[in-house]
């Protein structure tokens, strides 16, 4: 698929410089490639790419979860985790009407975890993870309600494990959630 910087900038209401910087940032992952005259080619999203991405995501998220459980009691991340947990419960209590709110909440939860790593590479890499994992849900609406309800429940178990400050429990909850995310991502690939 061909992408034109000017058309994309017009569509989303921003300048071409912002669009170009965004595209350049993601070109290093091999999903898009620069062509002459402000054009880009979307090269496609393959099963191999998905597997590579999920492998890196797992490494980074496990490291981040380990860092999170080690945060001191008064760290602001704990208060943010409480706010995120409350929203999880609110959405689950009205899942039929609010299941589409999950993608934004999922990104907020995982960004919080990744920030706790205090590793700029992990935090920066999360952008590609967010684009692929969250926006593939936009492409594949099949079973969105059920998928999002399951992910919300997995997040709540993950949050409980983080609060327990038990690295083994946090790792187990993290792996369970990432396994589900990987399966969902792979199912969405044609």
In short:
The protein has 190 residues and is mainly alpha-helical.
Report on this structure.
With 190 residues, the chain is mainly alpha-helical. It folds into two domains: 2-42; 47-188, GntR ligand-binding domain-like (Four Helix Bundle (Hemerythrin (Met), subunit A), Up-down Bundle), CATH 1.20.120.530. 74% of the residues lie in helices and 6% in strands. It is built from nine helices and three strands. It has a three-stranded antiparallel sheet. Strand 2 (32-35) and strand 3 form a beta hairpin. Helix 6 runs antiparallel to helix 7.
Number of helices: 9
Number of domains: 2
CATH class value of the largest domain: Mainly Alpha
Q: How much strand? A: 5-15%
Strand order of the largest sheet: 1-3-2
Round the Cα radius of gyration to an integer and report it. 18 Å
What's the end-to-end separation, in Å? Answer: 15 Å
| Helix content, binned percent | over 70%
General shape: globular
What is the SS-derived class?
Answer: mainly alpha
Order of helices and strands: EHHEEHHHHHHH
Instruction: Supply the CATH architecture of the largest domain.
Output: Up-down Bundle
Oligomerization status of the protein chains: single chain
CATH superfamily of the largest domain: GntR ligand-binding domain-like
Q: How is the main sheet built?
A: 3 strands, antiparallel
Q: Strand tally, please?
A: 3
Low-confidence stretches: none
What's the CATH topology name of the largest domain?
Four Helix Bundle (Hemerythrin (Met), subunit A)
């Amino acid at each position: 698929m061909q992408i034109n910087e000017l058309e994309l900038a017009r569509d989303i209401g921003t300048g071409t410089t912002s669009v170009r910087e965004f595209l350049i940032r993601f070109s290093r992952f091999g999903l898009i490639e620069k062509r002459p005259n402000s054009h880009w080619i979307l090269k496609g999203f393959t099963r191999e790419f998905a597997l590579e991405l999920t492998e890196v995501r797992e490494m980074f998220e496990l490291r981040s979860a380990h860092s999170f459980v080690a945060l001191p009691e008064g760290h602001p991340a704990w208060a943010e985790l409480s706010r995120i947990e409350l929203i999880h419960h609110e959405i689950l209590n009205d899942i039929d009407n609010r299941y589409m709110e999950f993608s934004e909440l999922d990104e907020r939860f995982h960004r919080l975890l990744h920030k706790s790593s205090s590793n700029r590479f992990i935090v920066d890499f999360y952008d590609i993870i967010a684009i692929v994992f969250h926006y593939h849900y936009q492409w594949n609406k099949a079973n969105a309600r059920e998928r999002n309800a399951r992910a919300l429940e997995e997040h709540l178990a993950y949050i409980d494990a983080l609060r327990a400050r038990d690295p083994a429990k946090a790792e187990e909850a993290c792996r369970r959630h990432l396994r589900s995310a990987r399966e969902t991502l792979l199912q969405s690939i044609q």
